[in-house]
Structure formats: C-alpha cells, structure tokens
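Hi Q.,

Before the meeting this afternoon, I wanted you to have the iron/sulfur cluster prediction in hand. No need to reply - just skim if you have a minute. The sequence and ligand are here:
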Amino acid sequence: MTDQAALQSVLDRAAEGGRISAEEALDLYRHAPLHALGTAADTARRRRYAGTEHIATYIIERNINYTNICVTACKFCAFYAAPKDTKKGWTRDLDDILRRCAETVELGGTQIMFQGGHHPDFGVEYYEEHFAAIKKEFPELVIHSLGASEVEHMARISGVSAEEAIRRIHAAGLDSFAGAGAELLPERPRKAIAPLKESGERWLEIMELAHGLGVESTSTMLMGTGETNAERIEHMRMIRDVQDRTGGFRAFIPYTYQPENNHLKGRTQATIFEYLRTIAIARLFFDNVAHIQGSWLTVGKEAGQLSLHYGADDLGSIMLEENVVSSAGAKHRSNRQEIMDLIRKADRVPAQRATTYEHLVVHTDPADDPVDERVVSHISSIAIEGGTAHPELKLLDAR
Ligand code: SF4
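Predicted structure with the ligand bound:
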C-alpha cells in the first residue's frame, strides 16, 4: 500500500485510537511521510493524555551495575567481561551497593535499576539477599530492575522454575521488571546479536508469567543492529499480543544500538529519522500500552526533544549512574535543570514522575525549579572516584 490517501486513512484511524495491523504499521513505517507520522502520533498522544497533554515526564533513578561478569556474551555488548577475564571483570559488594542507594535517596532519586551481567554464580539467593537488604534500609526506593533474561538465568543457576524465581525476588523486594534483555524478539535478529540468550518467545513467556504474578514491567527494543523494518514491527506485534492478555507492560522504550567496543562488525547506528519513525509508529501501533518513552541518552538531546512531538510522553530517567550503554559509546549526558529546560524548550511542562508514572512534582513555574547544585557537585565527585563510570545525571530508557 503506497497510495497516500490509503496511508492517511490508516494514520487517521490510529490517531483516533483505532487498532492498526502489523501489515499496516509496516506500510506506514516504509511509506508514510515523516511529518504525517509525527502529526498522527502526536494526536494519539494528546488524545490519550487529554488534560495533561502539555506535560512530559522524567524520573530520577540510579542504575547500579552490580557486576559486569557475564556468561552470555551478546555480540552488541561492550559492557560484559567473560568469567575468566579477571582484568576486566568486577563485582560490587553489598556495602558498596547500599552506599549507592543511600546517595540515590540523598539526591532525590526514587528508583533503583539493578543491572548487570549473567554471573555464573548468581542464583535467586543472590537477588533475594540484595533486594531484601536494599528494602530494609531504603523502603522508599522502588526496585525496578532486571528482566526475563535474568530470571531465566538465575532460575537455572538455582535449579528452580522461573515462576518460583519471580515469586521469591518479588517477595524479597523487587517491585517491577525493567524489561531488560528484550533486544529484538524475532528469531533471526536475536540469534544474530545474542545467540546465547533465551528465545524471544521465552522472554515473552516469562514476562507474561510475571504480569500474572502481579509484577508489571516496561518493554524495550534495541534498534540498529541490522534488523529489518519488518522485524522491528514483528517485535512490537509480539509485545502487543502479550499486552492484550496481561496489560502488564507500562511502557515501550525503543533505543538505538551504540557501535563502539563490541563484536558486531560493520553495523552503523540507526539514524535520528529512523528513531523518530519508530517512536511515532510505536505510539500508533500500541493502542494498549500507555507510555512511549523517548531515550535521548543514545540518540541525543535534540532527538529526545523531537520525540516528544512524535508520540513520546516521557523522557525516561535522569540517571545517577550508568555504565552499560556508556561502554558502547553513548555520550549524551545532562542534569535535572538541563532536562527541565529541554522539556520546556520542546514546548512541554516537565514533571518528575514515579516508577508507576504518577506525577510527583509538576514544574509549572521555572522560578520554583529545584536547585541542582548539590546534585551536580555530588555527581561530579562520584565521577572522579569512579574513574570509568559516567555517573552524571542523564536520561535513559528504564530498561
Ligand atoms: S547484554 Fe547483558 S546478557 Fe548480554 S553480554 Fe551484556 S551483560 Fe551479558
């Protein structure tokens, strides 16, 4: 379908909240003019958020990378160290993790993202111990972490079912899954970039299980590693089908592959235009997922601003620490004031949100903006201490 009138009719239906098929979404992806996609996606966003459509949200969180030791060796990953690589591999102890949680609370953070490799010794017990310790000392922190890949791995290490693993880490303190490890769910691109990860079907099965046990999640898509447009749409379709049954995905978060320091040869990053088309298509395709998140850590601040006009309602997190995409070359960083300014210059009112997307503070008047000096100076000191980390405030998808 390349007839522009036919494309416009599909766009109109999606903008009004009607469902479009995967085939229609692919036609739009391939043939609809970018500005028409953006207009329809923005209309759909405004419809969904009528009354608060002037607001764009962000969250303050800390990404705690607990280990980089990993047996899964994904080809796109610049973060991991093989278990035998004692020079590159490291693991943080519990005291270090708790200190980082304390700093997060001190800096106004509300969420912890526990993110690391598939360590050969870390079973369910490791996560139970750590989540329980974090919740004991910092009950106000939301643990929005991990995903189906970690569940599959820890269950295997501990010799239990995925269901038991989810029940136990939830009981210990995990609040929601960040949807890590989705990458690309269709078989061909998944095998090409993460051959040792569980299948896309298994990833979805575990997320569906989690939703059924009361553990909601976000969902993600890694784009730009050589997948086709049809495979991107197929990824979205697989998530939408599960969402029809569970309603447990709070958000969809596409982000772009970073091409440095990894084993994928000859791949180039997805362009900003591809990224914006993807954000817009996601808003139009996911009539059953509330939030579409712009991820400017990997695509840049201007693209992040533009995403708010292409269907995104959220700009993710001001992240107090992040090592994974930074290792692969993501260089965009910011602090809270800058993010509030970015949102305002994109013609939106910034609001700090909770993990579950309620507005905590709506920054209506710039004169009332929180003073950030303490945050920035504190973060700078961590950067000096950390050496390889880039723990400045920044926005990233809530994987
Ligand atoms: S993406 Fe995650 S699972 Fe894959 S190699 Fe990197 S740390 Fe390991």
